[in-house]
Amino acid sequence: MVTLATVIHIIVSIILVIAVLLQVGKGASIGSTFGSSSSQTLFGSAGPATFLTKVTGVCAAIFMLTSLYLTYNASKSRSASVMSDMPAVKSAPAGQKDAPQQPQAPEPAKQAAPAAK
Fold first, then answer.
1. pLDDT of residue 66
2. Are 47 and 39 in contact (CB under 8 A)?
3. CA 54, 57, 62, 63 torsion: positive or negative?
4. Burial letters for 9-34: b for 16+ Cβ neighbours within 10 Å, e otherwise?
5. pLDDT grade, residue 4 (50/70/90)?
6. pLDDT band at 75 (very low <50, low <70, confident <90, very high)
7. Cβ proximity of 48 and 42 under 8 Å
8. How far apart are CA 73 and CA 78, in angstroms?
9. Angle at 25 between CA 43 and CA 39, to 5 degrees
10. Burial code of 75-89, b = ≥16 C-beta within 10 A, e = fewer?
11. 39 band by pLDDT with thresholds 50, 70 and 90
């Protein structure tokens, strides 16, 4: 279910960006961008304002709902951490500096001296 919500979230976000970019700015006509003389012929007699406004509103609502759903599921499923397998680091008491520990070399095995004749 989370995968489906993620796919819907991505698709709706792309549509939302496209719908916002296609909306008519101040003094600009979207129809002139595509070579049309009037914006009404491109999106029908009502023009792009109502269609793109409705698409933007619906996409924004779906985007918000999927965002809330994905956030809720992400906060609920926090059970493991990358750092859970790491050993705890003990810090030195205040005032002491941590001195790097030198690995101790193994003591060489003592061989018995050869028996004297």
1. 96
2. yes
3. positive
4. beebeebbeebeebeeeeeebbbeee
5. very high
6. confident
7. yes
8. 9
9. 25
10. eeeeeeeeeeeeeee
11. very low
